[in-house]
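Quick one - inputs below.
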Amino acid sequence: MSKPMGLERTMSSYQMARRRRNILIQAGITLLALTVLSIYIMPLGFGVMTSLKTKDQASDPKGPIIPSEAVQYEYEGEKYDVVYVPSDSGDQEWALIKKSRKTSQFIDIHNPEKGIIEWEGNWRALKPVFETSFQWGNYREAWDTIEFLKLLKNTFVYAFVTMVGTLIASAFVAYGFARFKFPFRNALFMVMISTIILPPAVTLVPTYAFFVKVLNWGGTWLPLIVPQMFGNAYNVFLLRQYFMTIPRELDDAAKIDGAGPLRTFISVILPQAVPALTAVALFHFFFAWNDFFGPLIYLAGSRDLRPITVGLTEFNGLYRTEPQLILAAATISMILPLTIFFIAQRVFIQGIVITGVDK
Amino acid sequence: MGISLKWTRVARTQPRQGLRAGLRSMSPAQRREARWGLIFISPWLIGFTCFYLMPMIASLIFSTYSFKLSAPGDAHFVGLANWKRMLFHDSNVWEGLRVTFTFGLISLFIGMVSAFLLAVLLNSKHLLARNVFRTLFYAPTMVPLIAAIVIWSRVLNPQTGWINKLIDLFGIHAVGVTGLRWLDDPKLIYFAYTFIGLWGIGNAVLINLAGLQGVPTELYEAAEIDGASWLKRLWKITIPMVSPIIFYNLILNVVGLLQYFIVPWVLNQGSGYPEGTTRFYMVYFYKQAFTFQNMGYGAALAWLMFIVALIITTVLFTTGRSWVYYSSEER
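Output:
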């Protein structure tokens, strides 16, 4: 009852062809993703590379991509540029001692004892010799010039304080919407969601006038911190969605044990919702880290309170001719957010996925 | 996602009765529950009243005043003068709206298509090391916007930037003064700004990704048996199935783009360079309200922005009914 040999072979060769096709598709798609990714994050590489160059190299259109410096050679107390000079035995690295239109004088830097060499040809056509050299000092200089430590402290305090505030308030509100029936609950929830569509500009003018003229809070962190202590729509929405997935039986069990709504919230809901709470905390932290508009208008003139965003913007305006310093400062400013992201990326990506899911 | 779309329906099912009447018809246990609920949402109620409702009303009142913050004593009622000036005598307003819309359409299209295609790529079962790719593609979204703007403005530099060097490799002349001057050429500036914005699409990509993962695989299997091509499956199954997510992204994007401000402000302090192509509406609002401290006129400008946003979102929600597909209409 054995099958004919031929059929078996075609089966397996069919499978092999299929597997080969799959591997090809896999390779193709992965290669595509790799190409797109390299173009997508290429500016990051450019930023880091340029931040490690000298000022001249950073604005030299023809310079090499890797941070480098033109090689120089010292001869009788003077420094001279080293260039590639074509010869019968390949390019020679010679120092250009005397420039002249028709014949220039060189020193072979590897055999200086040979003395001055006359060379016929236009020296302008010769390419300079570069050697790799990373200007780590740019980071030091940018750090000091922009007073980065102060900016970092300001940004961190602001991000942290508002993170704690908004987290507590949003969790409270989300619990209220998720677990209790009260009149107009759905309507209020929809009002809350619709505040996402409201342009902040509409409330900005009176809020600004009130904070600055009535409370005299201009030039302090208060107008930026206080409004964030009441929970916002995005966070409440995300937390509520998550709280709804926690089984009600847990609440009921706590109730039977005599726990009131507050106890249930603290000892049942919050421990169950750690992933969502972490996601909201991180979201807010990054939002605050990037916040620009608020500090721009409320902290105008108080240099000591500026966060990184405002400091970096000013720096960008003042040091236009020093791209390497600006890019070093920009690189410093993104190290912390990127580090936190890479450590917490699983929670973070999960957090967004929760918001995206229809419940 | 559907959450915002269900809004009108849910609101309508709410019985029309006053809060007090509602409370009176409740049992003591229900009343206690309602009281706790209101206590828990009270932070938001207070925040909403203080930082949304009252400022909105105040803003509307402000818009009928001539009011300079530097001299609050001189404030006086001017009726609809601010609104008349804004609607009929201030060309900056219309220019701002035109600039915002022109850029908005370009950026919206490129941004949404990129976010969707990227999500499709990152959702492909053929992609090796999917999680690594997802993390790396998300990383630029974590770069602080100001740092992103600073880096992009340099990488788009006609002489030293890598973008032009890359384009040159494909045989297109891009480097140099006669090449592609992204941030100086009025024809290219919106594309340059769109590129900067592409570094922020990570959230949209992930939301799309969540949507793609929710599409039942049976649909694809059935289509594959019928011999539908990849493109056909994308067009006939994937896009309709994730249309609620696309719609959600669309709304968030539109609202965000109407308030476009930071990039033109950081790059050229709102000067409108080049040739006025970056005189965005919000830039003009900022100048009026905060640089010139014209709070009354600023409030009017803000309200106009609100009305425009409301009209656009209403139109989107109305037309959305015809193209957004909900698999579980009555949930």
